Amino acid sequence: NLMKHDINSPKHNDNRNYDYSSIETEERQEYSKIIALVSPNSSVIDLGCGNGSLLKILKDNKNIQEYGIELSESGVEICKRKGLNVIRGSIDTKLNFEENTFDFAICNVTIQMVNYPEVLLNEMKRISKNQIISFPNFGFYKNRFDLLVNGRMPRPMLFGYTWYSTGHIHQLSINDFYEIVGQIKGLKIVQVVLEKSANPIKNYFLNSFPNLFQVLPIFLLEKSK
Predict the structure, then answer these.
(1) Average pLDDT over residues 201-225
(2) Is 169 helix (H, G, I), strand (E, B) or coil?
(3) For strand 218-223 and strand 187-193, is the pairing parallel, antiparallel, or unpaired?
(4) Is 107:48 a contact under the CB 8 Å cutoff?
(5) Which of 52, 55, 69, 151 is the most buried (most CB within 10 A)?
(6) CB 223 within 8 A of CB 125
(7) Phi/psi zone of residue 58: left (φ > 0), alpha (ψ -120 to 50 degrees), beta?
(8) φ/ψ (deg, to 5) at 188
């Protein structure tokens, strides 16, 4: 294992630099589920939009008024080449938008990568009427088994990285997410999109014990009165 993750190797697997120069476009499994939650002709901001793949699909298929914020220079450059309205910046700080500027604020598989997730959630609530958030569920059973058996930072939800080479600095489970949302006044979960299976037994466990068996939950929230 030490040889596999040689920290002195120039090919060392590391995703903290957020370099999209070799990834112009990607089609992720969760995109279709997120797109289904977004209303046509709406205004959308994608926080941590990467190379703009999701924004571009939304713009082409839902005719949205798009905006994005991305920390990676290469990501912003690729987004601009795609004709997307994206700027470079952090997303877990005070954002330069008025209240309710957007119909939807999206944060896809990024909340676990920021220093201040509570600031991010509060800002999403402030600038948008609806919020869509997804993240790798660190409570997934393979993670729990890895920690129990090997006594180390679980690797299954690090997707090939190690505890020191991942940008996932605030790992969270589904239960953790419910807890933080409950602490933010004026934010309410209205829909949870979970993985489904054609196998009725597997589907029962996926839906009955999501914190144990779901890999990438997607939450639709709204600003409550």
Answers:
(1) 95
(2) coil
(3) antiparallel
(4) yes
(5) 52
(6) yes
(7) alpha
(8) -135, 135
